[in-house]
Amino acid sequence: MKQKFDLSFQDKITRNTIALILAGGRGTRLKQLTDWRAKPAVPFGGKFRIIDFPLSNCVNSGVRRISVITQYKAQSLIQHIQRGWSFLDGRFKEYIELLPAQQRIEESWYQGTADAVFQNIDILRSHKADHVLILGGDHVYKMDYRKLLADHVEKNADMTVACVEVPLQEASAFGVMGINDEWRVINFAEKPDNPEPMPDQPGNALVSMGIYVFNTPFLFEQLLRDHEAEDSSHDFGKNIIPYLVPRHRVFAHRFLNSCVNMASGIPYWRDVGTVDAYWEANIDLTTVTPDLNLYDEDWPIWTYQEQLPPAKFVFDDENRRGQAIDSLISGGCIISGGTVRRSLLFSNVQVRSFSNIEDSVILPNVEIGRSTQLKRVIVEKYCKIPQGLRAGFDATEDSKRFYVTGKGVTLITPEMLGQQVHYIR
User: Do the beta carbons of residue 223 and residue 114 sit within 8 Å?
Assistant: First the structure.
């Protein structure tokens, strides 16, 4: 029989839950944006990192025992967490701990998402949690995990998978769920060529968000079983879920029931795993009413706050006016006689006179020289854009020096400009 739990009981569940954020992936589809950082450390939204979203969801939901599993080029991610997420108080059994790949169980690096958890199983056991909430560190969304956890307990599930509806033509990039009337998962296909549509929404498929809840003893049992399976790639999507669906109580949780602050009435969840998707999600923030509300005081997104002066706009001559229209301009920026339109500038960006920036995402600590023309570009950190550079207008010409996506977004990095900011010795 289903039980209905009030908010106080939901809070009790969250206090007895540990969250594991899988933040070790490179994110190769982001191309050169992840040459020197893991995908969860990629800047987003003017002042945040992608990992700030699952971390903020945890804190806002009351899940304050958090472990972050790292592996690929984790230095900037570790530094960000140390600087911006040290406010939890261990005296109240609150913490964020970093779990780098340590070869604790055997002499190999993490082989898959399930193996990453398995190799830290001794640490998890020491925390003695009732439930384990497993999260990806590379999606942008706002979600109340209390409702997900309560749904898991209410249905007496062994495993619960958070799911979202996506257009059928996009579903091949995800794990696709088939469910019955009780939202129990009856079949699962990881990245199928021909995704199964939802019965009541033939144009959509129900896909896994990469968010899982397990009863702790059950998780340990399955990790040990999977570890001993010689034919397994030790991945939740490829191995764990397909094995569990026909044998155990696996349920789907609809994201619509736990998403927070829907500006458009549609749940906001973005996989910003490609350069085009990353550009689109950032540029959407410059619209009058963006799909993602970053101004919500009831569900704030926390991050490391640099101490920077306000953005500054100088010169007001007819052909030399420092201005920004329909744009987000972060602290430390100086717009000196240039124009910025429909763009997002991260911290400490300088735009020199007579430059024109449109529909662009400029990451921190970029210097844009005089008379520069940029449109539909992403500029990586520490770039020094030379005077008079023109990019984003001719894909063929841009592709000779920069990376250009299929949708015509140009990515510029220091190395592409011949500027060595990462010294390899």
Answer: yes
Q: What is the pLDDT of residues 388-423, one digit of tens each?
A: 999 999 999 999 999 999 999 999 999 999 998 875
Per-residue buried b or exposed e for 119-152, using 16+ beta carbons within 10 Å of the residue's own CB: bbbeebeeeebebbbbbbbbbbbbbbbbbbbbbb
Strand stretches in 140-260, DSSP E? 140-141, 159-167, 175-179, 185-190, 204-215, 250-254
Cβ–Cβ under 8 Å, residues 178 and 186: yes
- CA atoms of 155 and 133, how far apart (whole Å): 16
Which of these, 299, 379, 220, 242, lies nearest to 52 by C-alpha position? 299
Q: Give the bridge partners for 373, in sequence order.
A: 356, 390
User: For residues 22 and 69, is the Cβ–Cβ distance under 8 A?
Assistant: yes
For residue 185, give the nearest of 170, 167, 203, 206 by alpha carbon.
206
What is the Cα–Cα distance from 238 to 114, expressed in whole angstroms?
A: 10
Q: At what angle do helices 52-61 and 145-154 cross, to 10 degrees?
A: 60
User: Mean pLDDT throughout 75-99?
Assistant: 90
For position 8, what pLDDT does the model report?
Answer: 73
Among the listed residues 115, 114, 305, the one whose alpha carbon sits nearest the alpha carbon of residue 210:
114
Q: How many residues does the chain have?
A: 425
C-alpha to C-alpha distance for 405 and 342, rounded to whole angstroms: 19
Of 167, 170, 205, which Cα lies nearest the Cα of 188?
A: 205
How many Å apart are CA 352 and CA 335, to the nearest integer?
7
Q: Of 171, 156, 302, whose CA–CA distance to 215 is shortest?
A: 156
User: Mapping DSSP to helix (H, G, I), strand (E, B) and coil, where does residue 2 land?
Assistant: coil
Would you say residue 178 has pLDDT above 50? yes
Q: Which amino acid is at 310?
A: P
Is 252 in contact with 351 (CB distance < 8 Å)?
A: no
Confidence of residue 105 (pLDDT cuts 50, 70, 90): low
- The whole-angstrom separation of Cα 143 and Cα 336 is 39
Angle between helices 7-15 and 145-154 in degrees, nearest 10: 90
pTM confidence score = 0.94
Span 272-278, average pLDDT: 95
Please report which helix (H) or strand (E) contains residue 15, including its range.
helix 7-15
Instruction: Report the DSSP pairing between strands 43-44 and 48-49.
Output: antiparallel
CB distance 110 to 101 below 8 Å: yes
Query: Could you report how far apart the first and last alpha carbons of the chain are, in Å?
Result: 64
* % of the chain at pLDDT higher than 70: 96
Rounded CA-CA distance 38/29 in Å is: 12
